[in-house]
Amino acid sequence: MTDTLVAFDDVLASYDPALGLEVHVELNSHTKMFCGCPTEFGAEPNTQVCPVCLGLPGAMPVVNRKAVESAIRIGLALNCEIAEWCRFARKNYFYPDMPKNFQTSQYDEPIAFEGFMDVMVEGEIHRVEIERAHMEEDTGKSLHVGGATGRIHGADYSLVDYNRAGIPLIEIVTKPIMGSREKAPLIAKAYVAQLRELIVALGVSDARMDQGSIRADVNLSLAPAGTGTLGTRTETKNVNSLRSVERAVRYEMQRHAAVLDSGQPIFQETRHWHEDTGVTTAGRAKSDADDYRYFPEPDLVPVAPSREWVDELRGTLPENPREKLERLQAEWGFSDLEMRDTVGAGALGLVEETIAAGAAPQAARKWWLSEMARRANDSGVDIAELGVSPAQVAAVQALVDAKTINDKLARQVFDGLLAGEGTPEEIVAARGLAVVSDDGALGAAVDNAIAANPDVADKIRDGKHAAAGALIGVVMKEMRGQADAGRVRELILEKLS
Fold first, then answer.
1. Among 7, 496, 429, 2, residue whose Cα is nearest residue 250
2. What is the sign of the dihedral through the CA atoms of 449, 455, 456 and 461?
3. How far is CA 144 from the centre of its chain?
4. CA dist., res. 8 & res. 14, Å (int)
5. What angle do CA 22, 170, 285 make, to 5 degrees?
6. Is the CB of residue 89 less than 8 Å from the CB of residue 296?
7. Would you place residue 219 in the very low, low, confident or very high pLDDT band (cuts 50, 70, 90)?
8. Prediction pTM value
9. Cα maximum dimension of the chain
10. What is the side-by-side strand order in the sheet with 81-82?
């Protein structure tokens, strides 16, 4: 069944959105949260398990110190207060991929709380307040076999892989984001993008959305415009790309408005996001905290980080995101508009890495915000997940700088990179893309162009050198774009002077 949607502008005429984001970050510790099992991604199913993470009787958990350290550093980077004493709790609910039938998490005593992050959207700074960042363990993973959707409905059978069960997670929960109005989808995307960059800078996770090491749950509610109240929320689970975060917020705003306009109430529930169709579908009734029957974990001692340790970790934090943005803009010589567009495209880190690999700032920006952004949009993926690395973009630009290829030929090199044909140098050689700068070959092509366009040649002889552009285009077409345009111009003017 297809949901009825209200036009986005019409939503804002009647309602104010309230937005909340819960971002789960898988930490890159070598072992799990409460046991010594390895955490490598992609291992054979159920090979990285033990009695502790399988929840077998008598198994006793031990807290991973590295995970606690990472949690504190994340909290500090988000301007949070760090608890002097906190403890774990059991969150009780049944899922087939959760072997203990409860999740070891934190409830009313998180490791970090009361923080904020400032994000830039369309040239304006928006403060996103952080309610808490708490430690917990990940669940396993269910695989539903058969059927068309990959979900349990319509599947022939299900398999469970417990390798992921027990991997350390940090869940970062925002307070309700009010007053965002039409910018709610963009603020959501910008927040997750900046949070991901911060997590990578901290070195606590690879933050790969495509592998699930950072996942966003999008909470959305609508209330009558101007009331300042909160409506009934839905929670769209496990949105795994920046583009989808924006789309999910927009879709739920339009769906909520249609339900409310029809006189029906919003049902508090989880929703599934469908990347292929760009819609959400109902999941399960959303439980409140009381339904989980939280109680303190009896097998784990409280966590009480000393102030000396916290201060020591504070000294390891990366540069403040806003200060870094200002510094990079000054170093790169970008205008406010250029910097805003770079951030808005989610390409700041990619441009930074490309420059670090040797490309000039404007060249790095050009490729990511034009060619790479276009390809990502056509493929329906985030720009960071396109499949071309900053080092490869820098290598392509190095070939342009050396006049081995030009910008037009560089686009064919990117085709080869996406097709897995090797390094940029190998692709140029295999496809025969190198620019022709031999005067003999170029001279012959110039003579042909002059002979075929005598009226243009006469204009150049009369001193109208701007007309040379027409002949350059003819030569470039004959040379399949592989001529050195600058040298072609010189030869044209020499022959017609």
1. 7
2. positive
3. 26
4. 11
5. 40
6. yes
7. very high
8. 0.78
9. 96
10. 81-82, 112-121, 124-137, 168-174, 15-26, 214-224, 234-239, 269-274, 279-285
- The bridge status of strand 279-285 relative to strand 15-26 is unpaired
Helices (H) then strands (E): counts for the chain: 17, 14
Quote the Cα angle for 372-374-379, to 5°.
Answer: 95
**Residues 317 and 73 sit within 8 Å (Cβ to Cβ):** yes
**In sequence order, what are the residues at sequence separation of 6 or more whose Cβ sits closer than 8 angstroms to the Cβ of residue 308?**
none
Q: What is the pLDDT of residues 350-407, one digit of tens each?
A: 999 999 999 999 999 999 999 999 999 888 888 888 889 999 999 999 999 988 888 8
Q: Which amino acid, residue 471? A: L
CB 244 within 8 Å of CB 262: no
Residue 130 bridge partners (DSSP): 115, 174
Return d(Cα 215, Cα 195) in angstroms, integer.
11
Amino acid in position 421: E
One-character DSSP codes across 74-88: HHHHTT-EE-SSB--
Six-digit token string for 141: 């993973």
What is the rounded radius of gyration, in angstroms, for the C-alpha atoms of the chain? 28
Instruction: Tell me if 136 sits within 8 A of 169, measured CB to CB.
Output: yes
The answer to whether residues 104 and 33 touch, using CB atoms and an 8 Å cutoff, is: yes
Q: Give the end-to-end CA distance of the chain in Å, rounded to a whole number.
A: 72
Pairing verdict, β 124-137 and 112-121: antiparallel
Cα(213)–Cα(216) distance, rounded to whole angstroms?
10
pLDDT digits (tens, 9 = 90+) for 403-459: 888 888 899 899 999 999 999 999 988 887 876 665 565 666 667 777 778 777 767
Q: What region, left, alpha or beta, does residue 150 occupy, with left being phi > 0 and alpha being psi -120 to 50 degrees?
A: left
Interacting residues of 358 by C-beta distance below 8 A, sequence separation 6+: 394, 397, 398
Distance CA 493, CA 497 (A): 6
Burial class for 266, CB neighbours closer than 10 Å (0-12, 13-18, 19+): middle
- Burial group, residue 319, by CB count within 10 angstroms (0-12, 13-18, 19+): exposed
- For residue 245, count other CB atoms closer than 10 A to its CB: 27
Q: E-assigned strands of 55-201?
A: 81-82, 89-92, 102-105, 112-121, 124-137, 141-145, 157-161, 168-174
What DSSP state is assigned to residue 297?
-
- Please state the φ and ψ torsions of residue 170, each to the nearest 5 degrees: -115, 125
CA 180 to CA 185: how far, in whole Å? 9
Q: 9: Cβ–Cβ under 8 A, 6 or more apart, which residues?
A: none
According to the per-residue pLDDT averaged within each range, which of 118-127, 149-158, 217-226, 272-281 is highest?
A: 217-226
Residue 155, classed as helix, strand or coil, is coil
Strands 141-145 and 89-92: unpaired
